[in-house]
Amino acid sequence: MAFIDIPVPDLGDIADAAVIEILVKPGDRINAEQSLITLESDKASMEVPSPKGGVVGEIRIKLGDRVGQGQVILTLDVEGAEASATAPAPPAPVAASAATPTAPPASTAAPTPPSPAPAQPKPGPAVDAPAETDCDVLVLGAGPGGYSAAFRAADLGLKVILVERYAELGGVCLNVGCIPSKALLHVAAVMDEVRHFDALGVSYGAPQLDLDKLRAHKNAVTGKLTGGLNGMAKARKVQVLRGYGTFIDAHHLQLEGTTGTGQDKNGETRTVSFKRCVIAAGSQAVHLPFLPEDPRIVDSTGALALPQVPKRMLVIGGGIIGLEMGSVYGALGTSIDVVEMSDGLMPGADRDLVQVWQKFNAKRFGRVLLGTKTVAAQATAEGIRVSFESAKAGEAAPEAGVYDLVLQAVGRTPNGRKIGADKVGLTVNERGFIPVDEQMRTNVPSLFAIGDIVGQPMLAHKATHEGHVAAEVIAGELLGDEALARSAFDARVIPSVAYTDPEIAWAGLTEEQAKAQGRAIKKGLFPWAASGRALANGRSEGFTKLLFDAETHRIVGGGIVGTHAGDLIGEVALAIEMGADEIDIGKTIHPHPTLTESVGLAAEAAHGTCTDLMPVRKR
């Protein structure tokens, strides 16, 4: 007899879990990959498989025990194997049950993805050598859209490979985008808030910055999330391969391996075969060609690294990313200038929302140069000297400035031309986007695409839902499930949020869009100066407004400016999706006193029944 110990494998972000089922007993003959026990934590339930076949000896655990990585589950008599003190690392636990598919609602034309070009795909070069790895679904890119597509496909019973160039899952959003920026924005908001507490009778000393600790906090937040993703990938048996992927043909991908914490290629290549592929390769920051190569000129990734706290900083681009990072550095003590080529900040949001932000931040920011182009930059010993000119002919150019740090935040460009699209006949438009239909199909039958790479808005929450649709359509095709095969991206609205201070959030139709369309609307606006919670918080500068169709009275849009606006906009998006009218929202009882109460009160204002505002004059 050759007995080995079978331990609990790595559970990812789960420290320990309860044993809720023991699936074998002493004397049972089992096969490799056969499940031994079922574990349950507050995050997931999962089955732990055996790494080898053999006969079960002694079971070392019992029902109700809490177990963690390395704890011995049982001993196993490995037939024909030499005695060994421990078993090789067992495979990752698998999800206890796949999500039960449900029929999606009848699809309508998706508002965001463009329709795919009708051109037929060109045949790619034939692949003579067998693939080193094969799968049902290959997902190219492990950002929020990519990992969501991979996990959903795995939950539906498909064999999945997830390809990511970074060392950790989560893509730009989790590693160098949404999540680390929010960790820093929270710190900035608290620092700024306590500065005003002296007027309330609570005094604090000046903040003492420890950049190393601040970076460590940011990295700990991202590490917890990326570690959780690794655990969920293992639990679903999603195989993760690291590297850059380019298409060979419609069913094969060449993978160039990457190493380290960045994206350096290690010279290793392999071929991956797939039945279907979901392209979730994302986007990258636009780099202005006239800016010199200098460590003092950074994109959002470089700014999030917190290389220093500069005295003077220029933000090129008055969009959400630039203003969020400006808020962080401004709270840390940096003097911020912003230059924007258009006539307004935060394009897409209604001007009345942005005006509240501008008034509140008038003293926080230095120069805000609207209608101004950045035309030149020179690296000097004193700093980066940046020159401007007016975007309007004949107007005087603003004075040049010298800055310790320059952030270029003028947008992002999709990675559609970096994946070998030409080799497979995949349509990529002139801007680098991949056209898709409402089922996320490209013009190549085996290829689907989601996220930033398919078009605006470039938002993680849009990509997540698109990823689910692609995975369900693919599962429907491969498994013969007609309900799944009918899945479609038919969202009525995709909310947007600027996590500045104050926050700005909006969903659906804006007032400016309604005017441009000539659409008759009715507006309900509730000022936070009348909100008990906003006044108690000392932040009554904001307001909530809702827009209703003048004929049907159904909500068509809404905007919020104020603290936690991003947390409130979800109710507005849900109301639009459900076709709620002003009475539905107004008569929904909201808890008092809260900021979310302002949504119901704005609906009452539109209906003319709000008793928390001055009476409306009768005409």
From TrEMBL:
Biased composition (Pro residues): 111-124
Cofactor: FAD; (R)-lipoate
Disordered: region residues: 84-130
Primary enzyme class: oxidoreductase
Domain called Lipoyl-binding: residue spans: 1-77
GO function terms (MF aspect): dihydrolipoyl dehydrogenase (NADH) activity; flavin adenine dinucleotide binding
Classification via CDD domains: lipoyl_domain
Keywords noted in UniProt: Disulfide bond, FAD, Flavoprotein, Lipoyl, NAD, Oxidoreductase, Redox-active center
InterPro entries, per the entry: 2-oxoA_DH_lipoyl-BS, Biotin_lipoyl, Class-I_Pyr_Nuc-Dis_Oxidored, FAD/NAD-bd_sf, FAD/NAD-binding_dom, FAD/NAD-linked_Rdtase_dimer_sf, Lipoamide_DH, Pyr_nucl-diS_OxRdtase_dimer
Family affiliation: Belongs to the class-I pyridine nucleotide-disulfide oxidoreductase family.
Protein name (database record): Dihydrolipoyl dehydrogenase
Species annotation: Aquabacterium soli
Gene: lpdA
